[in-house]
Amino acid sequence: METANHFSSINHWTYNHLISWGVSEGTAVYLNMLLLLSIVLVLIYAADALAKRLLVGAAQKFSTKTSTQLDDLLIHNKVFHYLAKVVPLTIVVQALPVVFSDFPAWVKPLRTLTDVYTVLLSIWVTRSFLRALRDFMKTTALFRDKPVDSFLQVISIFLYFVGGLLIFSLLTGKEVWAFITAMGAASAILLLVFKDTILGFVASIQVSTNDMVRIGDWITMEKYGADGDVVEINLTTVKVQNFDKTITTIPTYYLISDSFKNWRGMQTAGGRRIKRSILIKISSIKYLSEEEIERFSKIQLISDYLQERKAEIDKYNQAKQVDKSLLINGRSMTNVGVFRRYIDAYIAQHEFTHKHMTMMVRQLEPTTTGMPIELYVFTNDVRWERYEQIMADIFDHLLAAVKYFDLEVFEYPAADDMRHILPKPDTDRSSLYSAMEAMKN
């Protein structure tokens, strides 16, 4: 009220001086309004600059003396910048009735515009504060990997919705509830328009509540070509940075409606699984003779095992009076069985295998491509590049070791293999038929 009285005094003072200078009353009214409007605009500009300088400056000085990041984030998100605009807004509200006192018909619509700006300013202040709060929550361990952006977007939509209702009420002069009642009839259209937003909101809540995905998780969703780290979770989309540095955007509600793989469990457990087979050529599998067992005993990792196993088998065969002139009689060791034991011993002593997780070598069902010997073990390093190196080193060794057990790895014939089998071009037809028969056999 005191500010309004000052403006009223200035109004009378300027009007009286214009009259005393010989300006007609009709012209003095307009000149007085323009003069006062100019003064108010200068005051608004000066008050805005001064308020920003004082408020933001004080906040910056205060933030340097505190250890928390919240005040820095409030400054960064322009909370005090918007709060400073309250000062010039107050001047406008107080000055309007005085500046346009001779034009009362203008006061109401201008006051309505001022009220609309007040609503928008309130939204801007609240939204900037929520952004600062979001950034602060992301710095804490509790919320660092949570979809905080989704909740901010929901609150922002709600703020703009409420702001829109208030602005509608101010511009039309109708009650807010009248507009809400009118919207009830158009609810079906609104649901259709905001379908993705509603689905995304529900999905964000379920994803957060069930802890399905966090920012930083490695997820694989083959249907949408996503294989990488989650970098952002919004209300409607989840952004995944693939390992080739491309970005895949997935609707948030697809994380609930479709299947995907989250590798977080593997990363937190500290072990990544190796599940790969070596295909053994079945025709190379055989029983081991005494001489072959003696030769295999030179392999240090299984030397003790072979001695213990041989003693156990010999004792059994002697007790059963087995005729060992044929190796098929009684109990005998096979080269593939010894090879499996070698793999067991090799992965057990390997420095990069996880000793507290499953370590298993198993024989799978024989197929047309041989008999799979599957290695099922976990590495103790979950980093992708190290995992691939460890797995490659293990299978490099095992593939090279196969021949020491008189085994062969199955593979389809290559071009060079066929050239060694097929006769030369000048060979007669009977020799060609003989070669073909040899290939069949």
UniProtKB/TrEMBL annotation:
Its main location: membrane. It is found in: Membrane. The keyword Membrane applies. The chain crosses the membrane at residues 28-47, 82-100, 112-130, 151-170, 176-194. Residues 196-264 form the Mechanosensitive ion channel MscS domain. Keywords: Membrane, Transmembrane, Transmembrane helix. It holds the Pfam family MS_channel_2nd. This is Mechanosensitive ion channel. It comes from the Bacteria. The keyword Transmembrane applies. The lineage of its organism: Bacteria, Pseudomonadati, Bacteroidota, Cytophagia, Cytophagales. Gene3D superfamilies: 2.30.30.60.
